[in-house]
Design brief:
This protein is an alpha+beta fold and about 180 residues long. Helices cover about 30% and strands about 35% of the residues. The protein has one domain: Gcn5-related N-acetyltransferase (GNAT) (Aminopeptidase, 3-Layer(aba) Sandwich), CATH 3.40.630.30.
Length: about 180
């Protein structure tokens, strides 16, 4: 893919995920510092961000979550989580979360490559229905639409922006069949 020659996309094992947490924490702080609505308010520090990522180690280890990470050398520059539904009535479904690209490497195809990796894994497992949410009106919406995602609806006052202002979120779905 053009523009990403030095970027490597990796599906991380639990041990590799744990080793990547400092970089993932830096990535998350960069996203929040840039105004992205990714579950945190302005001023989040790397310790709090690392704690969030550490909270998922068990789910990565048991296979509920597959982390896909973009590396520029040793530096973490992107992430996507594939979160499998554990429910007996939804073995065909998974959530996509923490689609984050470092501000210094955006518009180089990294988000598309990460999403493709997560979608390929889901498809190979028979998980053909994916869903995600994003801040309504964000640049992420255009990205999701351009990669085949369909709007399901918007929920007003869903979450706070980094400045504490309530904002709507739009939910998207994609059928991989």
């Amino acid at each position: 893919m053009a523009g990403t020659r030095s970027i490597q996309i990796a599906a991380l094992s639990a041990a590799d995920y744990e080793a990547a947490i400092p970089g993932l924490a830096s990535l998350l702080v960069d996203a929040v510092d840039g105004g992205a609505s990714v579950n945190f308010l302005a001023g989040v520090d790397e310790a709090a961000a690392a704690g969030w990522w550490r909270g998922r180690i068990g789910a990565v280890a048991d296979g509920t979550i597959s982390p896909f990470v973009a590396f520029d050398g040793e530096r973490v520059v992107g992430s996507v989580l594939l979160i499998r539904s554990p429910n007996p009535n939804s073995p065909h479904r998974a959530e996509i979360a923490k689609v984050i690209i470092h501000r210094t490497v955006r518009r180089r195809g990294i988000g598309t490559a990460l999403m493709s990796a997560a979608e390929a894994t889901a498809r190979a497992e028979g998980r053909w229905l994916l869903f995600l949410d994003t801040e309504t009106g964000s640049s992420a919406e255009a990205f999701y639409r351009s990669t085949g995602w369909h709007e399901a609806g918007t929920i007003p006052n869903y979450a706070m922006l980094t400045d504490g202002t309530l904002a709507p979120a739009t939910w998207y779905w994609k059928d991989l069949r």
